[in-house]
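Please fill in the sequence for the structure shown.

STRUCTURE ENCODING:
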Protein backbone atom coordinates (compact mmCIF):
# COMPACT_ATOMS: atom_id res chain seq x y z
CA UNK A 1 0.00 0.00 0.00
CA UNK A 2 1.53 3.28 -1.07
CA UNK A 3 1.32 6.82 0.12
CA UNK A 4 -2.03 8.56 -0.37
CA UNK A 5 -1.83 10.90 -3.34
CA UNK A 6 -2.44 14.53 -2.41
CA UNK A 7 -4.96 14.82 -5.24
CA UNK A 8 -7.13 11.92 -4.07
CA UNK A 9 -10.54 12.31 -2.44
CA UNK A 10 -9.28 10.20 0.46
CA UNK A 11 -6.41 12.65 1.06
CA UNK A 12 -8.81 15.62 0.90
CA UNK A 13 -11.18 13.95 3.37
CA UNK A 14 -8.32 13.16 5.78
CA UNK A 15 -7.06 16.74 5.59
CA UNK A 16 -10.48 18.25 6.28
CA UNK A 17 -11.04 15.90 9.20
CA UNK A 18 -7.60 16.66 10.66
CA UNK A 19 -8.16 20.41 10.19
CA UNK A 20 -11.51 20.24 11.99
CA UNK A 21 -10.68 17.68 14.67
CA UNK A 22 -7.59 18.17 16.84
CA UNK A 23 -7.75 14.56 18.07
CA UNK A 24 -7.47 13.26 14.49
CA UNK A 25 -4.67 15.73 13.77
CA UNK A 26 -2.74 14.48 16.82
CA UNK A 27 -3.35 10.84 16.01
CA UNK A 28 -2.05 11.38 12.47
CA UNK A 29 1.25 12.58 13.96
CA UNK A 30 1.81 9.86 16.59
CA UNK A 31 -0.71 7.27 15.39
CA UNK A 32 1.63 4.76 13.81
CA UNK A 33 2.86 1.90 15.98
CA UNK A 34 6.49 2.87 15.47
CA UNK A 35 6.02 6.59 16.14
CA UNK A 36 4.29 5.93 19.43
CA UNK A 37 6.86 3.31 20.44
CA UNK A 38 9.76 5.67 19.62
CA UNK A 39 8.17 8.46 21.66
CA UNK A 40 7.55 6.04 24.53
CA UNK A 41 11.26 5.19 24.70
CA UNK A 42 12.38 8.80 24.29
CA UNK A 43 10.20 9.87 27.25
CA UNK A 44 13.04 8.49 29.40
CA UNK A 45 15.67 10.71 27.74
CA UNK A 46 18.02 10.99 24.76
CA UNK A 47 18.84 7.90 22.73
CA UNK A 48 21.12 7.13 19.81
CA UNK A 49 19.94 5.36 16.66
CA UNK A 50 21.54 2.05 17.67
CA UNK A 51 19.95 2.20 21.11
CA UNK A 52 16.50 2.76 19.59
CA UNK A 53 17.11 -0.10 17.15
CA UNK A 54 17.91 -2.44 20.07
CA UNK A 55 14.79 -1.33 21.94
CA UNK A 56 12.67 -1.94 18.81
CA UNK A 57 14.21 -5.16 17.43
CA UNK A 58 11.46 -5.78 14.84
CA UNK A 59 11.83 -2.41 13.12
CA UNK A 60 14.05 -2.22 10.05
CA UNK A 61 16.77 0.41 9.92
CA UNK A 62 15.01 2.02 6.96
CA UNK A 63 11.68 2.24 8.81
CA UNK A 64 13.37 3.63 11.93
CA UNK A 65 15.10 6.28 9.81
CA UNK A 66 11.81 7.21 8.10
CA UNK A 67 9.93 7.41 11.40
CA UNK A 68 12.64 9.52 13.05
CA UNK A 69 12.62 11.92 10.09
CA UNK A 70 8.82 12.16 10.22
CA UNK A 71 8.84 12.87 13.96
CA UNK A 72 11.58 15.47 13.46
CA UNK A 73 9.59 17.18 10.68
CA UNK A 74 6.58 17.26 13.03
CA UNK A 75 8.74 18.91 15.73
CA UNK A 76 8.17 15.98 18.12
CA UNK A 77 11.87 15.10 18.34
CA UNK A 78 15.18 16.83 17.73
CA UNK A 79 18.24 15.29 16.15
CA UNK A 80 21.63 16.45 17.40
CA UNK A 81 24.76 15.57 15.43
CA UNK A 82 28.06 15.80 17.31
CA UNK A 83 31.25 16.65 15.39
CA UNK A 84 33.09 13.46 16.32
CA UNK A 85 34.62 10.58 14.43
CA UNK A 86 32.65 8.43 14.05
CA UNK A 87 29.71 10.87 14.09
CA UNK A 88 27.42 10.63 17.10
CA UNK A 89 23.72 11.42 16.68
CA UNK A 90 21.22 11.69 19.51
CA UNK A 91 17.45 11.90 19.37
CA UNK A 92 15.41 13.62 22.04
CA UNK A 93 11.82 14.72 22.49
CA UNK A 94 11.16 18.43 22.05
CA UNK A 95 9.20 20.41 24.63
CA UNK A 96 5.93 19.59 22.84
CA UNK A 97 7.11 15.98 22.49
CA UNK A 98 7.59 15.66 26.25
CA UNK A 99 3.97 16.78 26.69
CA UNK A 100 3.01 13.36 25.30
CA UNK A 101 4.09 11.69 28.57
CA UNK A 102 0.69 11.76 30.33
CA UNK A 103 -1.02 10.74 27.09
CA UNK A 104 1.32 7.79 26.59
CA UNK A 105 0.87 6.79 30.24
CA UNK A 106 -2.92 6.89 29.84
CA UNK A 107 -2.75 4.90 26.59
CA UNK A 108 -0.64 2.28 28.35
CA UNK A 109 -3.18 1.99 31.18
CA UNK A 110 -6.11 1.88 28.76
CA UNK A 111 -4.34 -0.80 26.72
CA UNK A 112 -3.81 -2.98 29.80
CA UNK A 113 -7.46 -2.61 30.84
CA UNK A 114 -8.73 -3.32 27.33
CA UNK A 115 -6.54 -6.44 26.99
CA UNK A 116 -8.03 -7.77 30.23
CA UNK A 117 -11.60 -7.12 29.07
CA UNK A 118 -10.98 -8.85 25.75
CA UNK A 119 -9.12 -11.70 27.46
CA UNK A 120 -11.90 -12.38 29.99
CA UNK A 121 -14.62 -12.26 27.33
CA UNK A 122 -13.02 -15.03 25.25
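FILLED IN BY: designer on duty
SEQUENCE:
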Amino acid sequence: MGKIKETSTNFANKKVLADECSEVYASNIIGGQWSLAICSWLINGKLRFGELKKLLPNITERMLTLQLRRLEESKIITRTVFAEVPPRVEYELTEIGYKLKPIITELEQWGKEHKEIVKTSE
